[in-house]
């Protein structure tokens, strides 16, 4: 009997060594090739196992695996964006959850780390674009049971989440797991993922027309982190917001080949829990603002938040920027803003042709720590006056007494933004985002040339089968409840991280 046990142990050891070495140097059990250091091969085995529960924190070894796999041709999810900054204050995409799929319009938000939709049991949820998610109608839905890696409800039965945003709205509910589909224009197959099933929402989240939020930030509950940890996409995603008066655009979950002239900034994940860039200077009409570069490094530094409508600068930077812009406006007339409650800085006489705005307003450049410059056209710092034809207002405001520099969606209109998380950098490329969407759906087509044309989104999205409807509203620029990140502001979905 002892002899039999010894032989069994020897067999197991031999099999273990053979499996590790062949996997480390060749092909894994799922057919994927990996290039790994054989001295670290003992770290491979756990990477092929499913996590014990959907709330378990991601392992650094899984992240290393994804980095080593980055050159492989993993699929990505190409998804259309809807809405715009002027009418809605946000951009949305479509996700389908469950079996059969139930459709939702979600705000794409790099400042949030959780994806959630209203649950059928929610009695404190507003009336949104689509019906609430009904877990009972999905044959693949499972609640996430209470465990040591999540916050639990009072009965210690289910995992729960709670989020508060900078404009003081809140969302809370339970965590569930189900199949999430990205539309049949996506090369990425439907995936099981964890999401929030809302039981309560307050503030602007209650009144907005969009159903919920798609969290693209960093964190265990982020849909990007979840897909990366599963090894189904590379550690990257991209957003491209349509221009002034157009809206729409495109989103890609997963890696893309960056254009050769894309401008990059380092993005330090240790510096801030949000996506940050290394902003050093701002130039107006070719002249640098007289500022100490440290002004852009206060608190969270300079962060990008796709869920925020406008941009917010620390006091000294805002005053300098405003003064520099006004010195360059020689033929325009200062006028009152659309909302008498705010001292918006607005001008008339520029005309309604967006492509001609650069003849009336100066060019602005953001200069990064590596010396690269991102050119901002007028549509990247202006919004249309809602009451005066041919008038425009500054879409960059003072961020109260908060020293953080917050760059919202307005700054990246008609700009492809590549969030290259694997290499800790963010890329920017000026282009026509409406045309980009159409090119993304033609395999092998070259990316469109930079353009400021006022095109329309003509592509028709074909959702998965059995998907349910459309339309929205939101607060108009100039009609919000506040202009400060630190106070209530409609269109500011920056998740508060404490």
TrEMBL record:
SUPFAM superfamilies assigned: Acid proteases
Catalytic-site annotation from UniProt: 109, 305
The Peptidase A1 domain, residue ranges: 91-429
Keyword ATP-binding among record annotations: no
GO BP terms, alphabetized: proteolysis
Region (Disordered), start-end ranges: 441-482
Gene3D superfamilies noted in UniProt: Acid Proteases
Keyword vocabulary terms for this entry: Aspartyl protease, Glycoprotein, Hydrolase, Protease
Molecular function via GO: aspartic-type endopeptidase activity
Record-linked Pfam families: TAXi_C, TAXi_N
Homology family: Belongs to the peptidase A1 family.
The protein, known as: Peptidase A1 domain-containing protein
